[in-house]
Design a protein that fits this description.
With 331 residues, this protein is of the alpha/beta class. 34% of the residues lie in helices and 19% in strands. It contains ten helices and 13 strands. β2 (120-126) and β3 form a beta hairpin. The chain starts with 6 loop residues before the first helix and ends with a strand. Bound molecules: guanosine-5'-triphosphate (GTP) and magnesium ion.
Length: 331
């Protein structure tokens, strides 16, 4: 697709080439970014402009730290809720739309690529659990913010988002996997372990496709399905129609490998809105400890209500808790 640049853009570019002062160069780049028409034909140039802007900004802001390894505050999002989910994918694949549909986060949703420039966390609720989704800028050949990789590395789960509205979905899917592989990040299930890379970090992965409401979505989904095979389930979503997102969030919670137990005090019903999240195989002592260290130390026994116990059955600290159990601790 031709870029069709307006004359004022070309003029700014000429000025930029001649300018030596870094601050003036930065101002010119920012004006170029504002002037450039945003569509598929210019996405490569938009990416390059953004890359130049962020590089120049960091040079201007921290000239004394040349060569030193710096960590920006964008590299880490403090974890909240049951787990942190990084939205990963090519430009324009619908990552921000998913986060916008289920959280109150102020995400940038746009028809053009590279709309998201910073990580944006938001809390989503699935049943009685809170999940932290982190919207990220895209992974693209034209440009990749380094903090994107750092956030993926420390997230609990990566949600790879591919758009069924995209003609190039297969090559973009492959590119994302390849770029992460170069950064020694392996998406679990989608990429086989590479004996040549021992230090690769494997991150649990959920694969979502957006745009199931679009024409040709079914054909494109089959193409992707052929490539993915039965390695991972594909979660189909339409953000504008709010279809499939609840199931996607359910899969997100499932991927954490956690179960939900509930606590009650004698004579009162359990608080079913506030589960205690425990790894599978956790015991009554683990459940008590997750509430308060002292609870576990002083625990004599617990009464339990669940699928495989008598109502109010007495159990000891080493009893293994099951999903949905209600516990009443006795000290
Ligand atoms: N029809 C349809 N359009 C969608 C869907 N999801 C996203 N879009 C549209 O696709 C465009 C891109 O959506 P974004 O959510 O901004 O995509 P992104 O992956 O965050 O893009 P970047 O920030 O560039 O990485 C917007 O115009 C959305 O309205 C979907 O499920 N169906
Ligand atoms: Mg976005």
């Amino acid at each position: 697709m031709p870029a069709n640049l307006p004359p004022q853009y070309n003029k700014l570019e000429q000025e930029y080439r001649l300018e030596k002062d870094p601050k003036k160069r930065l101002a010119l780049l920012e004006r170029m970014l504002a002037e450039i028409p945003k569509h598929k034909g210019t996405s490569h140039m938009v990416g390059e402009l953004k890359h130049k802007i962020s590089k120049l900004k960091s040079q201007i802001e921290a000239p004394q730290q040349h060569g030193a390894s710096r960590q920006s505050s964008l590299d880490h999002i403090p974890r909240e809720g049951a787990g942190q989910f990084a939205l990963v994918g090519p430009p324009n694949s619908g990552k921000s739309s998913i986060v916008g549909a289920v959280t109150r986060a102020a995400v940038e949703i746009a028809e053009w690529p590279f709309a998201t420039r910073k990580p944006v966390p938001g809390m989503a609720q699935w049943e009685n659990v809170h999940l932290q989704l982190v919207d990220l800028p895209p992974i693209a050949e034209e440009h990749l913010e380094p903090f994107v990789l750092n956030i993926i590395r420390t997230a609990d789960v990566a949600v790879l988002v591919i758009s069924l509205g995209d003609d190039d979905l297969l090559s973009e899917y492959e590119y994302v996997l390849k770029r992460l592989h170069q950064a020694k990040i392996r998406l679990r299930g989608l990429v086989d372990p590479d004996p040549g890379i021992h230090s690769a970090l494997e991150i649990p992965t959920i694969l979502a496709v957006t745009g199931i409401d679009l024409p040709d979505a079914a054909t494109r989904l089959m193409l992707l399905q052929d490539v993915v095979g039965d390695r991972l389930p594909i979660w189909p979503v339409s953000s504008p129609q709010n279809r499939g997102i609840k199931d996607l969030l359910g899969a997100c919670f499932e991927s954490l490998g956690l179960m939900r137990a509930y606590t009650k005090t004698p004579g009162h019903p359990a608080d079913m809105d506030d589960p205690v999240l425990l790894p599978h195989g956790a015991t009554v002592a683990d459940a008590a400890r997750s509430i308060h260290k002292e609870f576990a130390e002083k625990l004599q026994f617990a009464k339990i209500w669940g699928k495989h116990t008598f109502d109010g059955q007495r159990v000891m600290a080493d009893h293994v808790v099951e999903d949905g159990d209600i516990l009443e601790f006795h000290m």
